[in-house]
Amino acid sequence: MNAGSTRPRERPWRRLAGSQNRTLWFWAFVGPFALGLIVFTYVPLGWSVYLSFFDAHNTVSPTDFVGFDNYTSMLKNDAFTDSLWTFVVFTAFIVPTTYVLSLSLALMVNRMRRAQAFFRSVFFLPAACSYVVAALIWKMSIFNGVRFGLANTVLGWFGADQTAWLSTTDPPWYWLVIVTVRLWLQAGFYMILFLAGLQRISPTLYEAAAVDGARPGWQVLRHITLPQLRATSVAVVLLLVINAFQAFDEFYNLLSDSRGYPPYARPPLVYLYYTALGQGQNLGLGSAGAVLLALIVAVVTIGQARWFGLGRKED
Amino acid sequence: MTISRRTLLGTGAAVGLLSACGSNTGRDDGGSDGKGPKLSQWYHQYGEDGTEQAVKRYADAYDKADVSVQWRPGNYDEQTAAALLTKSGPDVFEVNGPTLDQIQGGQVLDLTDLFDGAKDDFNPVVLAPKTYDGRIWSVPQVVDMQLLYYRKSLLSDAGRKPPTTLDELVDTARELTTKKVKGLFLGNDGGSGALGGTPLYAAGLQLVTDDGKVGFDDPAAAVALAHLRDLYEDKSLLLGAPSDWSDPSAFVQGLTAMQWSGLWALPAVKKALGDDFGVAAFPSAAPGAKPAVPVGAYGAAVSARSAHKQAAKDFVKWLWIEKTDYQRDFALSYGFHIPARLSLAKKAAPLTEGPAADAVRFSTENGYAEPLRWTPASRVAYQDALSRIIKSGANPESELRSVVRKVSAELDRVKKKSA
User: What membrane topology does this protein have (chain A) (predicted)?
Assistant: First the structure.
């Protein structure tokens, strides 16, 4: 027996709990969220990758291993590659238009001397509206194809024929509907981001520019405002692109009907939704598409971040 | 003992987490009020008033099990497909199928033995797609069909007769189109969804042949589909209506002179227009071919993951095979459907006169049902092509060639699976 030891031996769980139970409390608070993340995000993600290697029709516990067959058939599937093009076209429309519109709104609101808070709220309000609700309003009352739709009524005053906005592919009027609804919904939100950026620009810069003889307007915007907004712009463009990738709600609610979805303006998520979760329930093929899409999103986002130098320290 | 804020928060979080994992799945096992096992039965949302109350009344009247009815609005096919992957899905559910993959995947039970002695009384056209490998996988509830509604007065004003060929339909629709009224409404997508394979059947072709081959690999198919493009190009089609083809609103509001819709819309049309309407089948699309109408049936199926398989089958047999008075009530009292039982259809008084009688005649003489082998993947490929032909003016021959290729690959897949 060792009578010489004076310090009582620490019990193992005490050591695990950390000093003042810090570790214990860390897990008490972080644990539920980490668990949620694992159970509801990482497990399904991993499962999806697993499914993508099987012929999984109507089952999530498949047995028929098919290797890369799902991937090759997805890549050879013109409906899937078309949906990627749809996404590219949509992004090419929506990112610049939202950028320009929200920046102009921010510049205008920022110059207001009175009622700034009022206009800020008014332009921001649509961001609180649900995509589904807005899409239904756009589809059923503003841009419906019959003579009493709002757009057709206005055109009717000028003697124009009624236009079926969502059903016309030549010219592709449906893009007008899709782009305007998203523009209306999100421009206000990005305006707030730009406003915050604008308010951070030091007034002394403008004063110095004025002293140096810069004309107010384009010259100041080009050489003072835009460079100072660089960090905000990078964040806004990144968010816009990621949001465009996730586009589903307005497409689905504007264009789907009880018999499916038309072959145009079908972004990847809508296509995969029909493949994997529609009546076909081809979960293997749908998962393969989802994995491919995730890879593309990752590559694009990383490339974009590199290119813009996201997170680089500002000078 | 003092409770620190941390302890309180921690306990709260733990309790919250535990209660969030409760097991209220809306069903439980074992009978509680002496009515036998608990069964859950799903229906899609019918548009007609009174249907929900009716099916609940039928379920309450069953005394061997405690059946709770769930009325499910929204995307019913997606909901059932997902629910069938789990044990918390329905025991008994109605389905516009089941699909071939659901049958091959063992998700639904074989119901052949329920039909003992009653099989010949079911409409054979709708029973066929419920049959696979000689076994029957759901009990047809009612027969639904789609057909063409037309305004008699508008047609006679223009000096036209109801169209009997697709050429006539194109001409009539063009002539009836004015600044305010369009000639024809085939759905907001221009017809690719609602019509589906109907133009092919009206051209004497099929979607899938009886021996499992592509049934429309024929020049007549491209000719028929090209006519649908004519309708679109003439601007005779109503597009972008607030409610789609399945709802007769566009027709009764006078937005269109003719509309493709379902038999279920007939009471509403009759109420709004009185005698000023008639019905027709989809007109013949090739010389010598018969007009066509699609018929189909929601069927009652039993989930293979049900905890009470036998009880669920007994209930289906009771409601959809034995209780003919309920079947009659369900088919005729709310919307307008043809009873799936031939004996009931013959006795159904509302179906013996006027446009309803015409509709019943079409369903027997011109009816076709989508074959079981026409899987969702094939349907998507075909519908995409049809939409491109109608709206974008794509070449029907080359579009159909690529559809034929995709559909034969899909047919090979399901054939391989059954082998």
Answer: Multi-pass membrane protein
Burial (Cβ within 10 Å: 0-12, 13-18, ≥19) of residue A283? buried
Tally the C-alpha atoms within 13 A of residue B300's C-alpha that lie toward its C-beta.
Answer: 24
C-alpha separations of A287 from A49, A244, B3, B376, B410 in Å:
7, 20, 49, 17, 19
> What CATH number labels B145-294+372-418?
3.40.190.10
Looking at domain B32-143+296-368, which of 3.30.70.360, 3.40.190.10, 1.10.3720.10, 3.30.499.10 is its CATH number?
3.40.190.10
Residue A23 CA to residue A19 CA, distance in Å, equals 8
Question: Is residue B11 predicted with pLDDT exceeding 80?
Answer: no
Q: Are B250 and A178 in contact (CB under 8 A)?
A: no
Contact A32 B383 (CB under 8 A): no
* Rounded CA separation B57/B66 (Å): 12
B153 in Cβ contact with B278 (< 8 Å): no
Reported ipTM:
0.80
Nearest CA to A228 out of A250, A203, A261, A262 is that of A203
Q: Which domain holds residue A105?
A: 87-263
Which 8-state DSSP code applies to residue B284?
A: B
Q: Which of A57, A145, A167 sits opposite B391 (nearest CB)?
A: A167
pLDDT higher for A16 or A38?
A38
Mean pLDDT of B189-194: 90
Nearest to A274 among B189, B196, B380 (CB): B380
- Report chain B residues whose CB lies below 8 A from the CB of A169: 391-392
Between chains, do B240 and A274 touch, taking CB under 8 Å as contact?
A: no
Partner-chain contact B188 A164, CB within 8 Å? yes
First-to-final CA distance of chain B: 71
Query: How near does any CA of chain A get to the CA of B342, in Å?
Result: 29
